[in-house]
Amino acid sequence: QVQLVESGGGLVQPGGSLRLSCVASGSFFSVNAMAWYRQAPGKQRELVAVITGGGLTNYADSVKGRFSISRDRAKNTVYLQMNSVQPEDTAVYYCNAKLRRSTLIAEADYWGEGTQVTVSS
To answer: 23, 69, 24, 32: which is closest to 53 by C-alpha?
Structure first.
């Protein structure tokens, strides 16, 4: 069984910072790209940031220059450092990982249950 568990969400004031973490645990052969998505009320889930197995990163235009994604491969953990947050960043943030359970099983998407981030004064 594979689990992705997010942490670090909460209430933060506009202009503040927050750091999200996501740990992948269970039995698997390899973890490739990891990413953060978010879904605001009444909106579709959108990609926030992604980091490849080789460490390349990409960001949604709305968060470029404010958010930073990183990973610790040894700990199977991905982070999202959120700076200068704004009310429009309010959403449930989901961790995504593309991983292989074994060499005999193709890569698949796994998701965490999400962590709420609320930006409000």
So the answer is: 32
